[in-house]
Amino acid sequence: MNEKFMAIDVGLKRIGVAFGVGQVVLPQEPILRKNRNQAARDVSQRVAEYGVNVLVVGLPLGGSSEDEMRRRIEHFVSLLEFGGRIVYQDESLSSFEASEIYTDTKRDGKLDSMAAAVILKRYLEVV
Predict the structure, then answer these.
(1) Rounded to whole angstroms, how far apart are CA atoms 118 and 93?
(2) pTM of this prediction?
């Protein structure tokens, strides 16, 4: 059975989403975040829709706000309805890498989902 992966890049306004099967990774429509409960419902729904086994969550490692960001992201993940495996992946510079790939400057969340795709590709390279 091929594992199905989803990566999320949790932001304050949007959550970038990417889906992967095997080594194929595709950015998806981002989730707009009105509040954390709505965002957690939307992520949980998307995970169920795609039949995801592994959720890869971007986590900023290093930097002065690492502990605070880890706490916020882990709290958000605790709100999800997901029975599969959850793994955390360093997301350092993923937004910068995504901006090198996706150069449109509109704030429509596509950059967030491209960053999620970068995070998922990094994870798949090491598993």
Answers:
(1) 9
(2) 0.90
Please, is 44 exposed, middle or buried when counting C-beta atoms within 10 Å of its C-beta (0-12, 13-18, 19+)?
Answer: middle
Q: Residue 56 half-sphere exposure, CB side, CA atoms within 13 Å?
A: 29
CATH numbers and ranges of domains, the chain: 4-126 (3.30.420.140)
Q: What is the 3-state secondary structure (H, E, C) of the chain?
A: CCCEEEEEEECCCEEEEEEEECCEEEECCCEECCCHHHHHHHHHHHHHHHCCCEEEEEECCCCCCHHHHHHHHHHHHHCCCCCCEEEEEECCCHHHHHHHHCCCCCCCCHHHHHHHHHHHHHHHHHC
Structure token pair of residue 43: 């992520």
| pLDDT tens track for 13-51 | 999 999 999 889 999 999 999 999 999 999 999 999 999
User: For residues 93 and 40, what is the distance between their CA atoms, to the nearest angstrom?
Assistant: 24
